[in-house]
Amino acid sequence: xxxxxxxxxxxxxALPAYVAGKPAADDGMVRYKASxxxxxxxxxAAVRDAVVAALENAHRYPDMSAQxxxxxxxxxxxxxxxxxxxxxxxxxxxGDLVRALVDPGDEVIFAWRSFEAxxxxxxxxxxxxxxxxxxxxxxxxxxAMAAAIxxxxxxxxxxxxxxxxxxxxxxxxxxxxxxxxxxxxVVAIDEAYREFHDPETAAExxxxxxxxxxxxxxxxxxxxxxxAGLRLGYAIAHPRLARALxxxxxxxxxxxxxxxxxxxxxxxxxxxxxxxxxxxxxGERTRVVTALAEQGWxxxxxxxxxxxxxxxxxxxxxxxxxxxxxxVLRGYGADGVRxxxxxxxxxxxxxxxxxxxxx
Length: 359
Fold this sequence. Notes:
Pfam family, one: Aminotran_1_2
Mean pLDDT: 95
Largest sheet: 7 strands, mixed
Helix content: 25-40%
Radius of gyration: 21 Å
Domain Aminotransferase class I/classII large: 35-315
Shape: globular
Number of helices: 12
Oligomer: single chain
Strand order of the largest sheet: 2-8-7-6-5-3-4
Low-confidence stretches: none
GO molecular function: histidinol-phosphate transaminase activity; pyridoxal phosphate binding
Number of strands: 12
Keywords: Aminotransferase, Pyridoxal phosphate, Transferase
Enzyme class: transferase
């Protein structure tokens, strides 16, 4: 091999590595993957059919404007199609927000722990990550986040329900926080797990978006819709920010199959099927959390499709304990372990494994 004398950006040496959920080993043992917050259901039949049909045109570039999909999403969210900004998952939309808003040395505030990609996206584009510790109940400390705002703050990321810990923000909490944020600072409310929230208590983020010119909402098709492998997410943004996101996003990021699948998922019949799946996952989460509480576990209140075990330095041992019994979970260093609400059999195994750990 020839010598490599290229120079990469110095900022890369300080970036943490993104760690994907560990796959289940193929060793003959019955194993379940509960490490990536994926849907336990495959895409609905109509979505699969739409993807297959779309492959007939895979030799053509997709509609870069994704006009049909953006029109449908605009109607769903009662905004203009131009206010929908698409990219390859909500994580990519978050990266677009950083590129559109953050100059070198500008600050981006987010809770920690929260979504693992946040510090990578911010640091890789020259921004300064400002990580505000969660409370002792693993919730956003909005008072501390408001106090962290400086003249260099350009973006605040609020993940609700928070990944990986699970708690969510209420309408009242968001209203009080937004009242403290300067109107030139964008507050992006990352709602990747919104569909799993108790519908009766979910925050009124659509209203907050209409009332605040600096609020953007982030959504994804990766979770409930079962399209993680197709990579599609979007922002709902006010016109000036939406235009800026369109300027910096990767061209043709929303592929032909992904656009077709997303459109099919918005069909009334398919949407009803997805609502039933969301209700099933919420029910399973309640069943699992109740069983764990009976074992003596005191876990954060989760509104996502996962539960979080704040095990601290015991996290690695618990991960190994679960893995040896056929369940792959997601570890977060010496902080904790996240378990996705997956197939019923996987959820049963989680309860059994957690009970064995405590005895």
